[in-house]
Amino acid sequence: MSFAELHALLPQLILALGATAVLMLGAWWPSRSCWILSGVGLAFAAAISAGLLVPSVAEIGGMFSTAPYARFFTILWSLLVGLTLLLSLRYAETHRFAGAEYTSLVLFAGAGMSLLSAASSLVGLFLGLEAFTLVLYVLIAFNRGDTIGAEAGLKYLVMGAVATGFLAFGIALIYTSSGSFHLPEAMHGLQQGDHMRPLGLAGWAMLLVAIGFKVSLVQFHLWTPDVYQGAPAPVTGLLATGSKGAVFASLIPLFAAMGALAGELNSVLAVLATLSMVGGTLAALPQRNLKRMLAYSSVVHMGYLLLGLMSGGADGQRAVVFYIIVYGIATLGAFGVVTSFSRADGEPQDYETFHGLGYRHPRRCIALSAFLLSLAGIPPMAGFFGKFGIFHAALKSDHQVLALVGILTALVSLYYYLRPIIVLFMQERPAHELRRGWIHEFVVLAVCFSLVLLLGIYPGPLLELIGQVLPQP
Amino acid sequence: MTASVAVHFPLLSLLLWLPLGGTLLCLLFRHSGNLCRWASLLTTVAVLCLSLWMAFQSLGGNGWLFYEDAAWIEPFGIRYMLGMDGISLLLVLLTALLQVAAILISWQQKEHPAFFYALILVMETGIIGVFLALDLVMFYLFWELMLIPMFFLIGVWGHENRVYAAVKFFFFTLAGSLCLLLAIISLYLIHGGQTGEYTFALEALRQTVLTPGTEMILYVGFMLAFIVKVPLFPFHTWLPDAHTEAPPAGSVDLAGLLLKTGVYGMIRFAFPLFPGAAERSLPLLAVLSLVGIFYAAWVAYAQTDLKRVIAYSSVAHLGFVILGLAAWNQLAWEGSLLLMINHGITTGALFVMIAMISDRAGTRELEHLGGLWSVFPNLSAFFLLFCLASLGLPGLANFSGEILVLFGTFKAQPLWGGLAVAGVVFSAAYMLRVVQSSLWGESKVLQRSDDLGPREWLILIPLALLVVLLGVYPAPVLDFLREPVSLLLATGGMP
After folding, report:
1. What global pTM score does this model have?
2. Is A404 in the B-facing interface, judged by CB distances under 8 Å?
């Protein structure tokens, strides 16, 4: 690996080597907040370096691209990791987390996500995906002594291992059919009439199964509610936003490389998207637990993202990236609120604990309502333009029926997003006070809240930026 | 597209965002109910003064009285486009007036006053935005912006069954809105495909060439949103629930303003964009509005809750408005729009009065009221005036609009007109029942409180004056309507 390549890899190196350093130094000097805060610093340093340094090579090791697209997501995931760490500060304090270990794991997750989004070969894809999945196995069960957390971790481990198996086998089959791991070339064996085509298609089917597990599309989503519920709230936030967003980010170049094949996969994808939108919505309706509701709602959002991905073209890609961002902001914010309310003896998740809380903690509850309304796609929240972009792309590429399904599920989804809001503000029962928030948590929530409003009113600049970084066809 | 009043200052933006500034003040002063109260009152009064000033500035003007256009979200071709013609101007005036009344009627709001006033002001921005927006996405944004405050107003400050009513309101209107959104995006894509220029500007989209089938589908998408909001029979079931549970200010806004946005959407967007489909749908619209007039009157007669009676009477009146639109001629349209303004004032006033009555009597049930006249003569006199106006007594507000609608309808379809006249009789029946069972008879209400206080006089006198004025001399209003209406009818178009 040349110096130029290392230079291009610097943001990921900052995250990964920084994580290693924190892990080792933490053994000597066990100070929780110090290490978490230095993790925040490292993450922001990675984001800044990804934004300022111009890479001199186009590809690193033939596996990871250094295109503006990859840089964009590196910045995004670094910031996400930084915000997650900032958010975790008090949570880690009250739950007596091992600070250095926690910090280094989250940083590793950020490195993995940014590698995945930058993947330009199937090997890179595998490496990136496994890097942060492995980290998440640990993070989900990080709450020692919490049996639900342990169960969630185990569930994610088993499901994740199965998915990894599918992924590896799928990649192997695609490699067999095309003779290359590298992205545009890996698709060459799949042209119509090629005798290796059936093998390649089988590989793609397996790849889709693995992706379905990772982003929890319906039929592969069964782990989601339990893991969401069991994992510590900040980790759930990371899982819901970063890991799913990074997978979708990696799928955009993958689908762009497919060309005609993408059209043939569309029928399968349409079924997955429809099932996810409808199934997730129906499953979310009866939930009375905020984290489980958000789990099912994330299934629905993955369906929307898939719809945008199928629509393809510059419009579809832009819509998907924008959606990943606004969905991520609102989700991080929602889990941030749960984090800030949590106490040593548990997190408030059941709607019963939220009764009338809106008047006890107005700022956080208004923020939570804004995040939920954004997820529901109600203007003037950012989620509206996310959905707008997706439906725009879907109609443009003649997916009228799917767009209609999307609109209908958006309507029904309103019910389960309104329920917590109703409980927060429209129930009389006098609420007991939950945790007072820390300034760190308020900073993160304020960032998310203002972004949700800002992107809902003036999304133009971000949309233009996304249009510029998208991989050129 | 020239502004007849050459004002370089963005007055429309000021008008639009002023209430939102008041919202921020309210949230800033949220620990002092009194400061919030005054901040919101001053904001609404400022909006009223500004809109009155703009009305005087544009007396006798033609075309867009005020117009603004700026780039906004360029990747999607969404523009910040505001325009005010005579119709918008009148509706903005109505909004500004009723919002002052809404603030004054809820002056003694004790529960979370800051949030309450903040929401009313957010809603004012939403409503004014709907009346001014000329870009379809912008229109949609404001259309939805009205929704959230109303949801909270009903859900938080409403009566016993408030959550049910709030959710029902939200779902009905959102279902319509999402159809509208799909139709807007489809129209945008079709237009973009034809001309290569992707834009949501109303002016440009009107030039889109559509096949009759597509036109009908898109038209239905638009109309569903508007019909639910109006509400036209059989999409009206959310309205009585919302009214019954809403706090007084919510009812005033709902009946006085929110319902008008649906009609406005039809004449500004649905009809001009899809004239062919609109023309084919007129008989259906007329039938639905006629059924609505009779059905609502019939149901209103059976109600025991004062608020529900007035809610159903709104359905009947809005039926008249839509009937006038379906007649599709100048006279009927002017009548419809005039009736809309008049209905906003009378019904707004009626809901204000119902709040005053139920404050004093502790109930809105007709059977528990009665003999109010002997206890509260001043209040009862005002109530009688507004009730008579509502049933269409000549010389009072609603009559002038209704009679124009009837004339216009007779000109277009004598049968519709004949049936509608019978509807007027029906409305007399239930309103007289309200008057009879609340004002006269044995007094069942203990005299616990006084007759009208100064604040209440302040609300009622302007409304009463307007009711009389609009009934006797509606000419100034019609002057504002004439030119825009003839333009809309002639070219389906814009100044």
Report:
1. 0.91
2. yes
